[in-house]
């Protein structure tokens, strides 16, 4: 799936490809307008904040394009002479231009958050720029220096030096968590390089994941956002910045009423770290997590689908030192509810490094409160991974004694099977030697060579152990069994299978 537009740097995204819909109209789709009457006026609010919004112009040096080699054609081809003349002419033109690097420029938006000259924008607006300038509403232009950037949330902090005796107009961040779907907002930016432009709309949705990074929780708005608006502020009706406009979905590059903004409450700690350290310092606890499905929630007696299921724990990491184990479901972190898997990396990342926090986990159907010290994330690492990819399926050898259960054939781990599936010497569990097609086990990605390490958080060493656990679950009226699955690389994940 293609990513939404990020300013002028990205190619046009097909709305049909993004949403799986067909475009029914041959003409350009009209912009989505608010169906209800908006505020009587936003003129007073706009007048207070407009001067704090700036146009960001950048320039960079681009190396000359390399000449295209003349295609090889069979001797005597009727096109041989034509292509030789064409490419000879192209080479001469390049030599006449001196083969010199060329300068390219781009435009975006930003806003002043401190009268001393600190400006917030998107990282993609200033990425790879040699020079950055902030153009103000009064026509003045100041050179900006990059203080720091964060590629994961797509934010950058710039600094300009105001002329002596001049105080810059600035704006303040608001609380994006109090926004509701339907609240009115206004966007100010530099669409298509036109200069300061204001549009009004509503919050269309919250916590949108557009697959642009590990911390996606965008605000969605129908306020018109176009190329060049990137990095500009999204205001509430009191003039507080509640978002930074970052991306749009559009078949043509123009607004169709689907724009996305980084929430202020996500941006504020990032900006504070960039201002203090010139880099981000995110929290990390060292767990590999996966989504809690309805089946997993039922098998773990969670009551409802919630939390993040711990698949594995990094040795000597903060989570391991705090007592978190594989199979735990983290439902609360530092006083904040973990609604789903995607919420945990965002909460942990916003937690100060070295802070002592309480973590509530569900273990064997009961809540336990643990304590740990948050570590620092290596920015080259992923904050949390999903399920591990499956290994290629392999048929069971004829000599292996197997037990058929839940769409699988399982067997005790023997030296022969360890060799066949390239399992490590210290691998334990019951090996899956075959999976029947079109079964829940196949749908969950289980394949030959996987190991069943636990059934409902009880270790298994033989197929009989698995059978006994399943029989107990059926007797207790449970509909699914939670399996801890290991692979040849030692990666662990959980999956729930129906016991019928």
From TrEMBL:
The keyword Hydrolase is assigned to this record: yes
Domain of life: Bacteria
SUPFAM superfamilies hit by this protein: PDZ domain-like, Trypsin-like serine proteases
Active site: 124 (charge relay system), 154 (charge relay system), 230 (charge relay system)
Signal peptide: 1-33
Chain intervals with Low complexity compositional bias: 386-399
EC code(s) of this entry: 3.4.21.107
Catalytic activity, reaction form: Acts on substrates that are at least partially unfolded. The cleavage site P1 residue is normally between a pair of hydrophobic residues, such as Val-|-Val
CC annotations in GO: periplasmic space
Major location (coarse): periplasm
Keyword line: Hydrolase, Periplasm, Protease, Repeat, Serine protease, Signal, Stress response
Biased composition annotated in UniProt, kind: Basic and acidic residues: 375-385
Annotated localization: Periplasm
Annotated spans, Disordered: 375-399
GO BP of this protein: proteolysis
A Pfam family annotated for this UniProt entry: PDZ_2
GO molecular function: serine-type endopeptidase activity
Domain PDZ: 274-365, 406-488
Record: residues binding substrate: 124, 154, 228-230
InterPro entries: PDZ, PDZ_sf, Pept_S1C_Do, Peptidase_S1_PA, Peptidase_S1C
Stated family: Belongs to the peptidase S1C family.
PANTHER family: PERIPLASMIC SERINE ENDOPROTEASE DEGP-LIKE-RELATED, SERINE PROTEASE FAMILY S1C HTRA-RELATED
Name of this chain's protein: Probable periplasmic serine endoprotease DegP-like
Organism: Ancylobacter defluvii
Lineage: Bacteria, Pseudomonadati, Pseudomonadota, Alphaproteobacteria, Hyphomicrobiales
